[in-house]
Target: AP-1 complex subunit gamma
Amino acid sequence: MIRAIRASKTAAEERAVVRKECAAIRASINENDQDYRHRDLAKLMFIHMLGYPTHFGQMECLKLIASPGFPEKRIGYLGLMLLLDERQEVLMLVTNSLKQDLNHTNQYIVGLALCALGNICSAEMARDLAPEVERLLQFRDPNIRKKAALCAIRIIRKVPDLSENFTNPAAALLKEKHHGVLITGVHLCTEICKVSSEALEYFRKKCTVGLVKTLRDIANSPYSPEYDVAGITDPFLHIRLLKLLRILGQGDADASDCMNDILAQVASKTESNKNAGNAILYECVQTIMSIEENGGLRVLAINILGKFLSNRDNNIRYVALNMLMRALTVDSQAVQRHRATILECVKDSDASIQKRALELIYLLVNENNVKPLAKELIEYLEVSEQDFKEDLTAKICSIVEKFSPEKIWYIDQMLKVLSEAGNYVKEDVWHALIVVITNAPDLHGYSVRALYRALLTSSEQETLVRVAIWCIGEYADLLVNNAGMLDLEDPITVTESDAVDIVETTIKHHISDVTTKAMALIALLKISSRFPSCSERVKSIIGQNKGSFVLELQQRSLEFSSVIQKHQNIRSSLVERMPVLDEATFSGRRAGSLPAAVSTSGKSPLSIPNGVAKAAAPLVDLLDMSSDDSIAPTSSSANYLQDLLGVDLMQPSTQPGTMNPSKAGADILLDLLSIGSPPSVQNGSTNGDLLASIDAISSTSPPAPSSMMDLLDGFGPTPPTSEDKGPVYPSIVAFESSTLKIEFNFTKQPDNPQSTDIVASFANLTPNVYTDFLFQAAVPKFLQLHLDPASSNTIPANGNIKQTMRVTNSQHGKKPIVMRMRVGYKIDGKDVLEEGQINNFPREL
Model:
């Protein structure tokens, strides 16, 4: 049969041979042919190993086991172990045969039964046959004792409660001279200690000294050919003894003291030029690290691991790195001595060793060694393989940020990383770099010049381009004027035209994505204000994107062109430098320890009375309503455009029916105008608002394309007012000053209790005409706000206009509606800004 199967050239031929043989075996089974039963079962085992079904032969195994002869029983037990497992119900029928064979006078039949029981023992069989196995642990023949110990291990794993029955017999096995019995006895004791704390204490008191003596005798024993492996006497027994000693010494000072000397002897005298010796040394190191405190031994163990790192075998180096990571928590100073060797492992050709060594180096870094380690890692970053760059870059950035001794060093290292592997740097990392730069006024000039130089040579690194473009937009005047020069840098000649050139190149570069191009457009808008002589050229470059197929770029191009052409008087205020971004706030938000919107003010929260006007604050304060209704005051200037654009916001949660910006658009560091995020789309048209990244900050346009709103040019026609469909709630005075009064009227639709329709009435309390009227509002993340255009952008003297809005409260019934509002208008060409908080909404809304 075997010859025919091996001669088959195709799988079909093999299946045909197997089918034929199976048919013959079935016929033989049906005929109850006892002479050929063991041959048929041998064939079935071979067929089973080929993967074909052989369940029809299971009962034949039981018949052979019940046979009186040793050859039949041997084939029967072999078939039992191969063809059945502990989940088979038919296995219940073999328990009685096993019990009889365990009590058989022929020790070879007893051995067969023990082997079978050790391989397929179930919990029920373990309970039934445990007494027989316990008795056989004291059998006269060492081979039976050895097999009984292995079978007892299986029984204890299946039924841990039976461990107490084997404790004393297992302890007796530890005194054996026969290595085969001794190693199985040690293994049995180890398993018992894992499942029984009482047995563990018993072995600590009764067996620790004996185990130490046994290990010493084996370590000092002369050459014995019977047990010698590569010049070491029975390394397998060495390892088993060390594992048991580790369990006994863990958490027990007395047992640890008892084994210190022998562990030092094994660690210092075992040969390390053979694999067997290295296996013993590794197990010895694990034992030393696990038992109670002994500083000298641990230093010795870590030095052994240091030698392992110099081994040519990758497996040995890998396990050494694993152990050193565990040793760091025990003795970091001893591990630090092998820092140079570990650093070399980072440069290894094996990917597994690279990653493990990098993780270990990351844990070794501290304030004292961060500079040399970061230097080595960055130098290796230049030549590392592409697959490894991402992990290496992430670790370098984390190290530099966490242990940076000074800001200029941090900026220098991050620039090197951005220049070498900027495409692997994550968003929050380069965001953090910008935060650090904004918080270092004396380094603004140095940073923008360094980034300009880097951009000239590494323009293919997308992240570097973004950071450089952001800084050029903010600090272009410092770049051109060489302001803030440090002693360590060389002067650089950059003209206004050069600054515009490099931004224009970024916009036109084929690999620049939408986010980068949008950042470049904003940088150009800022440059046009910093350098009036370049306004026309900037206007031309921005205008080239008016027909862009990318809606984000098209919208920004149209808006920025409008700013340059029609709103010269507010452009300088609009593009003033970003306020300093709070590092602690940003770091806390990255760690997830702060709410999404927090105040940038260091002052304590102060409740503002409803409707009381206050100095304009950054919109981060305007939206800081996630935890309470108080608003933190700020000392920023009264220019509302600067405040509106200099914001620090997180992305609001997405609600049905709205299309929020991408995650990049929600972050302050994608620049002033939510770069990289598509504008919100509602009612089938695009929102023309500059503040597209802020959830419902300003009105959306009505469906008709011709009535698209322009924030800077006014509003389109008034859409039809929807009729009331729900109960009427009492009106409130949302805001009142000497010049303006705002009233809110509420309606709710019965089938949608989360939504509230609000009609705002704006009353002019003066004899003057208000022009360019603009109402803006902001709400916390649990609210969604939709503003329709006002009925007019001009309020006549002592007249009024109306504007409708809808607020959706996702926490309806749990949290009340709160809102920050801002109103801007002109009186005789003079800008007026009024601002307040509305917190007297009816609770039932």
About this structure: The CA atoms of residues 61 and 79 lie 6 Å apart.
